[in-house]
Amino acid sequence: MRGLILEGGAMRGMFTCGALDVFMEQGIVFDGMIGVSAGAVFGCNYKSRQPGRALRYNKRYCADKRYCSFDSLLRTGDLYNAEFCYHTLPTELDVFDTAAFQENPMAFYVTCTDVTTGKPVYHRCDNGDGEDILWMRASASMPLVSQVVEIGAEKLLDGGIADSVPLDYMESLGYRGNVVILTQPLDYVKKPNNLVPLARMLLRKYPKMVEAMADRHLRYNQTTAAIRAKEQKGEVFVLRPPEALRIGSMEKKPEELERVYQIGRKTALDRLPALKTYLKEAVK
Question: Going residue by residue through the chain (284 aa), what tens digit of pLDDT does each one get?
Fold first, then answer.
């Protein structure tokens, strides 16, 4: 089975959107996909077969206070306004194609972090309905600027804290011809999070979550090193930016979103022959 793994990274996810749109245009399909944070909320459009949608609504609303603003953070506890982003936008302003999502046989998983344990939680989204959207929201809910998302007995936040690039999980499900889309360049090394002291205060009810935040850079660097080793052996195919994307998580300039999106498109197009060869060999 061929799998697709999408790293998060807030608006660095526009790189991923560019690559995924090329995949859709080229008819490149996978048996399963997993998205983390922005990889989940933008990547769902790959399953619903809506090329251009993520770029379109981000460019249209990036400067809208209803979408992402400190005003929203102060009023609602969420930097990215949950009501606008996960209800108004996908149901009224730029409609998410739930029917197409359901009809696509590709399995789609999202990764979240359980705030009580600090461990990853993986959830398969089959319907694209309200509950699935809630799981996607949880995956993209960044600590300190988002409310904890409760789904049943689960208390969840950003999946990138516990498992930024869940290649191991996809392999555990039996996926072997895996493609990983990263949003950091090859030489990137994650540093310790300097907001951990603040997290110890604001998330004091969830000490395991704070521990996961404090250790995240170690797990991330180990994961990307392991992926690089597998890439060198031809065991995984990786798309990554050629250099740092230099875009903020609250980017307000549509032209900057377009710039990063176009880098994703160019990277995918440049690597397209090699990607097709890899995928052809992977199904043998």
Answer: 999 999 999 999 999 999 999 999 999 999 999 999 999 999 999 999 999 999 999 999 999 999 999 999 999 999 999 999 999 999 999 999 999 999 999 999 999 999 999 999 999 999 999 999 999 999 999 999 999 999 999 999 999 999 999 999 999 999 999 999 999 999 999 999 999 999 999 999 999 999 999 999 999 999 999 999 999 999 999 999 999 999 999 999 999 999 999 999 999 999 999 999 999 988 65
For the four alpha carbons of 95, 100, 102 and 108, in that order, the dihedral sign comes to negative
Quote the distance between the C-alpha of residue 260 and its chain's center: 15
Nearest-Å Rg of the Cα atoms of the chain is 18
Q: How far apart are the first and last CA of the chain?
A: 10
Q: Between the CA of residue 116 and those of 150, 156, 221, what are the distances in Å? A: 12, 8, 24
Give the chain's count of helices (H) and strands (E). Answer: 11, 8
